[in-house]
Design a protein that fits this description.
This is PadR family transcriptional regulator. With about 100 residues, this protein is an alpha+beta fold. The chain has a single domain, classed as Winged helix-like DNA-binding domain superfamily/Winged helix DNA-binding domain (Arc Repressor Mutant, subunit A). The protein has 4 helices and 3 strands, in the order H-E-H-H-E-E-H. It has a 3-stranded antiparallel sheet. Helix 1 crosses helix 4. It is elongated. The model has no long low-confidence stretch (mean pLDDT about 90).
Amino acid sequence: MIFQYGNQVLDFCVLAILEHQDSYGYEITQRILETIEISESTMYPVLRRLKKYNHLETYDVPYQGRNRRYYKITDSGKELLELYKSDWEIYKDKIDYIVKGEEDE
């Protein structure tokens, strides 16, 4: 795909994934890679940034002799996700309007 994905789109995708269930970094990355072409190293700065701004929190779970870090969306993250959803619909509608042209009346 030739379109570039900015920080907000990646933030939006991460928050949307975590809205449904807590997850660890590798699993989040794999979910996003199912639909968006990004490098795997791109996701960890996104997760760190969302955590820094209190949109995510983390906790560790033992897994095969080591800890696996899970990410959980916070109330602040849920608010941001709702804003992203609203803005996304507006943005998508504007792009569709341009690409598809005016509707016949």
